[in-house]
Amino acid sequence: MKDFLPPLLLQKIVWIPTRLFLIFFAKLEVRGLENLEGLKGKVVFVSNHSSELDPILLPAALPLFSPLSPIFYTSREKEFYERHSFLKWLFYREWFFEIWGAHQIQVGKHDYEKSLEKHKEILNSGGSLFIFPEGRKTTDGSILPAHGGAAYLARATGAPIVPTSIRGVFKIKLRDFLLRRAKIVLVFSAPIIPLSDDYKAEVQKVMDIIAKNL
Fold this sequence. Notes:
The chain is of the alpha/beta class. About 40% of the residues lie in helices and about 15% in strands. It has helices spanning about 5-25, 55-60, 80, 85-90, 95-100, 110-115, 115-125, 150-155, 175-180, 200-210, and strands at about 30, 45, 70-75, 100-105, 130, 160-165, 185-190.
């Protein structure tokens, strides 16, 4: 799939400096890599969302030559980011999103098949997705109610879901890195296969697993 090359190259280029930075300044610890053994792609990573750093942590946590690379993402409409702050508007540009591997969901369709058509295509082509089912960052550190899109994609494509817990980044600041006070832990739990078409309920089971590792 031609869309795989730009994110693959970019994620590999930034892997070494990002990984070194996170290990030195944030004491990055990755647990559960053994749960990814045997997976060759077509995986839905599902995570809690508490920081703007979350999207870069998964590629940095995987081995450099992981068969699960590149990682693709779901993103919101452009106006969603423009509403939040100037810096977010400046950083979240459509061209950068696409190079990094983010593809916009079709908001307002009220139909997973239509709103996640591109992401379904990515999975069926052997790509891996990283999804934040809460749809936005938490404001108090707790896990928010989750949408069911990740379970729909898993059911529609036969992809397993890997619950991925990220802790140590809620309200993290630059000085926490500079003073080496940060401690980021990313935990991969065992893959699961949704067993029903009650997508929200299936995703909630995943979020419950994630919460246990926070």
